[in-house]
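Here we describe the complex-level prediction in full. Unlike the single-chain runs in Section 2.1, the two entities below were treated as one system.
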Amino acid sequence: MKAVWAIYRANFREYARNPAVLAFTVIMPLLLAVFLSLIMGNQELFTIDYYLPNMLGISLMWLGVFATAQPLVEQREQKIFRRMAVTPLSRQSMLWGQVLFRVSVGLFQAAVFLIAGRIGFGVRVQGSWFLLLGATVMGALVFVTMGYVLAGLARSQEAAPVIAQPVQMGMMFLSSTLLPSAMLPAGARVVVRAIPLTYVADALRQTISAVPPMFPLWVDFAAMADSWAFTR
Amino acid sequence: MEVLNWAVWVKDLKKRYGDVKAVDGISFGVSPGEVFGMLGPNGAGKTTTIEILLGLRTADSGDVRILGMTHPEDHRRIASVIGAQLQTTGMYLTHTVREMIQLFSDFYSEAAPVDELMDMVGLCDKAGALVKNLSGGQRQRLAIAIALVNRPAVVFLDEPTTGLDPQARRSLWDLIRSLKASGTTVLLTTHYMEEAEQLCDRVAIVDRGRIVEMDSPAALINKYFKHIAIELESPPGAEVDAASLRSLPGVANVAADGRKVTLYSSDVPTTMASLLGTASHSVKHMVVRQATLEDVFLKITGRSMRQ
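The structure predicted for the assembly as a whole is:
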C-alpha cells in the first residue's frame, strides 16, 4: 500500500509541476467549450450545455494522450521503470499507483468543468450524480488504457505524438463532440459509432445537461466497458 | 567455499547480442564484506554482467547467485537486500532530491533516514533542488544515495565515479570505504585503474567479455611487475626505437604506445645511466614510477585502457 501511494504521489507531482500538461488536460478544453458555445450558441442545440460535457470528454481523451502516453514514453526513456525494477516494488503496485492517479486527474477535470460551468454559465447537473461519476471514471479508464497502448506502440519520445495526434484528432472530429454527427457525410457516420469518445461524450451530455441522447445511457456504458476491455 | 556462502557468485556466464559476445564465460565469487572491482575498457562486458546480476537481463547460459538466491524466482527477495546504481540514473525530472530519495525509501519495508543519505553523498544543500537542475555529478551522487536507501547487504555500483570531479570522487571513495567498514559487500565496475587499486580487495580484469586476470591489486602488480616503470616521451619525428631499448641493462620489458614508451626495469640506476647515454636526444619527458594496474592491463591485453 505504501508503495502504491508513493507512486501515486510521484505521478501527481510530475503532473502538477508540468504547466503544459495541466494546460492540455484542463485549461485548453475548458476554453474550447467556452469559445465553441459562444460561436455556435445562436443555434439552439449548440450551447454550453452541449459543449461543456463534450469538452470534458475531450479533456479525458487528452488525459490519455498528454498525461498518460507522453509521460510514460518519457519516463521509459529516462529508464525510471528499469531502475524501479531493481527494488521490491511490484508491477501491480506500480500500475495501481499510476492508474489511480490518472483516474483522480479525471475526477479533478470533471470537478473543474462543473465548477466553471456552474459559476460562468449556470450549468447545473441534470442527471444522476452517481451516473456522472461512473461516466467520468469509465471515460478516464478508457482513455488512460488507450494511452498505455499508444505508449507501447511508440518506440521513442519523438514517435509518440506522430502516433497519438492522428488518433486524437480523428476522434475529436468524428465523435460529434465538435460538430453534431448529422453534419457529417453518411459514410463517416458509421465511424462515429466505432469511436469511444462518442460514447464517453454522450454519457457525459446525458448526465450533466440532459441533451437529447444519441444512444441510451446503458449503450454508452456498455461501449465504454467494451473499448476498455478491448484496448486492455 | 560453498556457493551459498558467497555474497555474489557467478558461474560461466554468457550473453550475446547478435554476433557480439558481450559476456563470454565469466565466473567469479565475491565474499561477504569484500569490495570487488570489475576493471576494463568500455564494451568489455562489465555492465551486461551487472545487469544480469540485478535481474534486468537474462543470461544465455550460466548460473548466478546473490546471497544464495537467484533470478527470476527470488527477484523481489534479492531486490529488498541489494542496492544498485545503474549507468543511467532513472529519475523523475521534476522531483527534488529529497522527494526522489523518499520515493525510493517507500518501496522498502525499512529505510535509512533521508537526511542521513543526503549527508552521505554530500547533497544536503541540494535537498530542495529539482533533479533536472542538478549537474551530472550531483545526479550521480543522488543515484548512489538511492542505492543505499535500504541499507543493503550487497551494493552494485556501475561506474560510480564517472562524471565526478576529483573532490567528489575522493569523497565517494571514503563512502565506499565506510560501507566496507560497516560490513557491506560492494561490487563496482570502473575503468579507472587508480580507483580499483585504492578501493578493491580484489580486482577482475575484464576484456572482450572474459576475465583475463583476477587477484588483489598488489598481487597482480607483483605478479606482472616486480619492476619499476620508466616512462619516456619522445618529441615528434624523433621516436625512440622501442626494440633497441630492450637490450639495455636491467630492462625486463618494453611497452610502446605511440610516442610513449615504458621500460620496466629491475635496476633503475643502471638502466637510467645507459638510457641517458644512448637515447637522451630523443627523450622529451621522463617519469620513473611504481607499476600500476594500468601497466598490468597493458601487459595482459596488449592494449591501453584508453584506446
